[in-house]
């Protein structure tokens, strides 16, 4: 009597199907792991718009001008410090005290760009005042591969275009 011989391995078709599945999965994972530089810059712009809106509201509540400026590989907000003068019952902004740079503030603390080598155009400091109606403003955030525009409308709200 003959006994049936059963193979304990895989057929060539089965091995090829497994390799194709592994290839597709690894391609999908590698594409999702590598961030798009434009997406990173857009994320920076959205975060900056939220922070600028919060700073604008703080100015309207407090009355003191807040300055936004780029520093190194990031940016910061700063403003004058309220001081009580002996000859006045009204607190005033000191020109001798150190600036408040919001280092302990949850929203307005100094931040670094996520995208590498961001340039802001125009590069001058931005003054946020208590005026409810202001002139429109455009900021461009530029990296080596992308540009994102931030706009302030006449009501003072910042948004990413």
TrEMBL record:
User: How does the entry describe its membrane topology?
Assistant: Single-pass membrane protein
Write down the superkingdom of origin. Bacteria
| Compartmental location | Membrane
- Which InterPro entries does the entry mention? N_methyl_site (IPR012902), Pilin-like (IPR045584)
Q: What is this protein called?
A: Prepilin-type N-terminal cleavage/methylation domain-containing protein
| Location, primary (coarse class) | membrane
Q: Which UniProt keywords apply?
A: Membrane, Transmembrane, Transmembrane helix
Residues spanning the membrane: 12-34
């Amino acid at each position: 009597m003959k006994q049936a011989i059963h193979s304990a391995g895989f057929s060539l078709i089965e091995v090829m199907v497994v390799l194709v599945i592994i290839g597709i999965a690894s391609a999908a994972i590698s594409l999702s792991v590598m961030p798009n530089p434009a997406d990173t810059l857009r994320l920076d712009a959205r975060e900056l718009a939220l922070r600028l809106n919060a700073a604008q509201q703080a100015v309207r509540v407090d009355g003191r001008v807040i300055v936004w400026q780029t520093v190194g590989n990031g940016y910061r907000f700063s403003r004058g410090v309220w001081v009580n003068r002996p000859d006045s019952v009204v607190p005033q902004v000191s020109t001798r005290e150190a600036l408040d740079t919001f280092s302990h503030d949850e929203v307005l603390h100094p931040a670094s760009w996520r995208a590498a080598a961001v340039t802001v155009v125009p590069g001058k400091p931005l003054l946020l005042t208590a005026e409810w109606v202001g002139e429109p403003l455009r900021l461009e955030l530029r990296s080596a591969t992308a540009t994102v525009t931030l706009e302030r409308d006449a009501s003072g709200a910042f948004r990413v275009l």
